[in-house]
Amino acid sequence: MTEARGSAGPNGVTHARHAPGTPCWVSLMVHGLAATQEFYGALFGWEFRPGPQQLGPYVRALLDGREVAGIGQLPPDRHLPVAWTPYLASNDVDQTADTVRLCGGTVGVGPLDAAEAGRMAICSDPSGAVFGIWQTAAHLGTAITGVPGTPAWNELVTFETVTVAKFYETVFGYEEEAAAAADLDYVGLHLDGRPVAGIHGVGSALPRDRGPHWMTYFEVADADDAVERIIGLGGHVLRPAHDSAHGRVATVADPEGARFSVIQNPR
């Protein structure tokens, strides 16, 4: 991964309207909504309140009263992968959805209105990785970053970067920055010179049971402590905590199998 933002103050960075193409929200659809709330509430200190119910029961997670993520309940007959999904900001979700189709992607849900909150669509890129599009109305998206319990970064894990990077560049207007290391297939996605997301091509190391997917990183105060708590709460460790150029990172899964990473930023 690459560094997603600059340093934050002790109370985090509070966000206003997100520029088009910026990851502005993360959402998780699960089978057991109550149990999932208990897991993430204990892990990140989140509290919850009801959100728009267009796709079924749905709650917004809050940290110190500010919205950070959403969790919804899958219908019992829908056997979809349980996964964290990033939403990318758009000024016109219908137009963006049309561009997704023209560029070889798929629009699976919407575009549709989420009550007064905004307008949304759920799509997949040509490799099959799922992402959302969000057009703001009353709900601006993630309201705070830079403190433990908030999204820190979003990264597409896929076979190879070249083809799919062109898709996101065309749809969202990103500028690409390839990794300097010759043996690393990594592309940073930038807006106005600022890194907002990344694409990591891992080839045959891509999990066979998962396929290409977006990975959300959540900031934690102590990665090793977070891993211990995840295990104690019924989650699983996919890659143990290790040091990276951007902090100490671990890749984990919640009790329903949703993969995510935790990162302890260097201070």
From TrEMBL:
Residues 22-136, 150-265 form the VOC domain. Gene3D superfamilies: 2,3-Dihydroxybiphenyl 1,2-Dioxygenase, domain 1. It comes from the Bacteria. InterPro entries: Anthracycline_SecMetBiosynth (IPR052164), Glyas_Bleomycin-R_OHBP_Dase (IPR029068), Glyoxalase_6 (IPR041581), VOC_core (IPR037523). CDD domains: SgaA_N_like (cd07247). This is VOC family protein. It comes from Streptomyces chartreusis.
